Sequence to fold (203 residues):
Amino acid sequence: MIGVEQWGLLILLAGLVAQDTTAGPQIRFCEPIVAGPIAGWIVGDVVTGVLFGIAAQLIWSGTIPAGMTAFFDANVGTVVATALGAMTVGSAVAFLWVLPVGYLGNVLTVVERRVNGRIVESVRSDDSPRMVGVRHVSGWVLSGARGVVTAVLGVVIGVLVVPSIVTAVESVVSPVVLWAGVLGTGGGVALGVTWRYSNGRAA
Fold:
């Protein structure tokens, strides 16, 4: 059972992961292969964190954000899915919760960037360095807030629906087959990106 303090730490981690993905400090702890094990450690299930981190990293490798490109937020999605995975004994079905959370993060990122754009437009040439700094920090805070909102919505909805989905799916499909499909899909995405770049074409 995940306690209140653990949920709080997970939500905080999601906010930091969102900041590291886009606003800073961008030291890459946001990558699923790092964020997954950290989330797993918080909830007391490092194995699930590692497995989810590896699977999500394969998918993320084909959706890495570049500049202002809209992206699939597998990073925050991994944090949320790992928590739900710990609740469902590392089910591959719980891992698939990365998808709706990732797309939710994508939508909220677009909203965040629009707000940040307005903040940037409000900067004037005669603004003091302090005011410019305040605007910069507000953009950084917005990025973290986006991760927090994404995680909270993903967790609340996920706790309500994922356990039931896991029970229904695993009653008819072997967990081994499910994990083979997840890792196979992730591996296919990673190999596809490598193949396109190796042939000199943009992904």
Notes: The chain has a mean pLDDT of 84.
